[in-house]
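Today's session is about reading a structure prediction critically. Students often jump straight to the picture, but the first step is always the sequence itself: look for stretches that repeat, for charged clusters, for runs of hydrophobic residues. Only then move on to the predicted structure, which in these notes is written as discrete structure tokens rather than atom positions. Here is the chain we will use throughout the hour.
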Amino acid sequence: MTDASLSFAAQPKTKKIHRSLENFDEYNIAAPLLTSPRSLEACRRQGIEAEELVFRYEDSFFEKGITQDIQEIRWKHYEKKRRDKLSLVREERLELVSMGWEPSINAGNATAASGNETGNDSGLDAERRSTAALKEQRQMESIKAKRQQELEQMVAYELKLTQVAEEQQRQIEADRHKEAQRQKEAQARQKAWEEIQRQKEVDKVKEEARQERIRKKLAVEEYQKEQDRKLQEELEEKARLKAARQREVDARLMREEHKRQTEMIIEQQQKVVEKRRLEMQEKDERRKAEMEARQLESMVKAEEERQRAQQRIQSAMEQQRELLKVQRRLYHERQDRNAVKRAHYEASQRAETERLRQVAEMKKEELVRAFKKMERIENKKRRQTLEKEQTAEKNLQAVRQQKEIDHRQKMERQKLKQADKLEAVERLNRIQQYKREQAVDRLNADDERTTALLSFKDKMLEERKAFRRQNEMERHKVIESMEKLRQQPSKALKTLKLGGGMDASTDGH
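Below is the predicted structure for this chain, in token form.
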């Protein structure tokens, strides 16, 4: 029983008013919903209950455990069926109106009244009774044939109804089998999809492990290359330092050799100067000896010559000293230049070493940045892959949810369709029940009519028997009157006249 029918049953009785399908209030739930005979007849003929025509709000379809879309589907389904049913019963009522249908009078009472009227009518003559009996006999045969035909139709309809029920049961079993097969196929597809997903996860783990091994191998190779490069740079730095030290040793040896050669040159020059001085002294002494020999003549000249020689020696020595100063200055300048060059070289070596160290640091930083960049790229790829997987999972989840919603709605529609089939069967049963009741009423009316006819026939037979008895009695009376006439003619004549008048009235009857 539906919620609407329960609410109808719970409504208190109100005063009777005329409620028809013409002025049917869809929102009224107060009983009775319909009072018009044509409207009620239209509902009975269509197998529709009046409660099925009442509007129901969507909230009335709420049940615990169902979703809003299922509730809306149920409400829309009910509303569509309600409007269709309302159209059907209204069309049926219009057809009843066009046919001029009127509520039928109780057949049993009519037959009983007809029987009473016939029983009370004692003025029919024998010929009319005989004709009525023949007519009633033909009507009884027609009624029997009609009853037989209706019984056959009812049996055929019951067989057809049984076949329809069996066909619907087979259809239900087929639908159940199809649904079970579909569920099995869906489970198989779900299992296959899960197996594919599991295999994808396994392949993904293997691929990540392989990528990790490749990254580790590349990192090891890069580390080994960096170590080899550092070792090569250290060897090159050692070679450069060794070459620098060798060049420093060579430069120092060259400086020492140059110093030794300079000192040798200075010593040679000093020896030459000393030799010249000794030679000039020796010449001077020879000149002194000659001058002594000349004494006076050349004293002035000798003195002058000596002074000039002394000046030349002094000048030569000055020149030699100046030359030594110049050579020392040049030597010191070369030493300073060499020191500056050495300082510049050492500075350039330190700068080169610092540059190489900075280059190595820069390369190391670049390597670290490269590793970080690779790690960022890898993390980005991993995040992108994870986002793609999450997006795909979300999309898949959305598809699954939509499929579940579609499947739930499809199952609900199938349930509603199945309920419609059951309701159609129930409605058909109500229609057939109505037809059976109509047939039973007709059969009962026919039975009552037949019973009345049989009673009428029996009554006519009884009347005929009574008529024969009366004739016999009157014949006996006539005979007795004749006997009395012989004995008492006046009294017998009077009796005979009375009997003749009775006969006349009897014959008239």
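Discussion point for the tutorial: The first helix runs from residue 3 to 10.
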